[in-house]
Amino acid sequence: VEDMVAVVRKFLRDKFVKADVGITGANAIAADTGSVLLVENEGNIRFTTVAPQIHIAIAGVEKILPTLADAMIEPLVQSAYAGLYPPTYVNLTSGPSSTADIEHNRVRPAHGPKEFHLILVDNGRVKANKDNILREALLCIRCGRCHFHCPIYRAIGNIWGDPPYSGPMGAMWSYIVKGDTKPAMYCVHSGNCKEVCPMRINIPRVLEYIKNLGLHSKGKLDYK
Ligand code: SF4
Question: Exposed (0-12), middle (13-18) or buried (19+): which is 47, by Cβ within 10 Å?
């Protein structure tokens, strides 16, 4: 594994340096400051957000939290439940690079990106938020903890769900984003996912609800 990582490291370093634009997601977004939080261990996100001249972050609207203080908690919870606490890096971006070293006047850009753009994606999320059962799924922070405690995921792995979504979490998101009720049908309601979820999402209840929608739509995608 070390040899494979070394090859990838050498190959990607050059790409990071030469890229014109860096594109990332976001683990959390602070509504009060417009800041984006990203958690990682590899250092690729740090490169992507700093080395290119332009940084574009693309994230679902459910990632928006009221304050920067709220948003800063998310990476710690995400990394803890993903089994990688403490995370190697937490990246906070609040706009293009800047300096205020001279007379405390903020001047942009400095050494990092000249531009920062945040693209918010709805793709079924706002509609789900209006549904009393489905809205619970929007609390998901994609830690992946539910995967490893699910008997179905342990048996069949990543083929369960619509990529990039997989596992119990993915069965919920496959419906919210793609209107696909089939992944929910795999759930056997062991309840393990609900017990380990840091956001206390009642995943079996959400999946039961999606199953019912799928059965009553007679196979049609009636959601979107
Ligand atoms: S449903 Fe819960 S346990 Fe599963 S990925 Fe989302 S937050 Fe983590």
Answer: middle
Tell whether ligand 1 has an atom less than 6 A from the beta carbon of residue 207.
Answer: no
Instruction: Give the C-alpha separation, 190 to 181, whole Å.
Output: 19
Backbone angles phi, psi at 100, to 5 degrees: -130, 30
Burial of 150 (0-12, 13-18, 19+ CB in 10 A): buried
- What torsion, rounded to 10 degrees, do the Cα atoms 90, 92, 93, 98 define? -110
User: Per-domain residue ranges for the chain?
Assistant: 2-121, 125-216
Architecture of domain 125-216: Orthogonal Bundle (1.10)
Give per-residue pLDDT as tens, 137-190: 999 999 999 999 999 999 999 999 999 999 999 999 999 999 999 999 999 999
| 214 within 8 A of 187, measured Cβ to Cβ | no
- Classified by CATH at the fold level, domain 2-121 comes out as Rossmann fold (3.40.50)
Cβ(137) to ligand 1 under 6 A?
A: no
At 14-24, the pLDDT tens digits run: 999 999 999 99
Please identify, by atom number, the ligand 1 atom nearest to the C-alpha of residue 141. Answer: 7
23: left (phi over 0), alpha (psi -120 to 50) or beta: beta
Q: Is the CB of 141 under 6 A from ligand 1?
A: yes
CA distance linking residue 48 with residue 54, whole number of Å:
9
Q: What is the DSSP letter of 211?
A: H
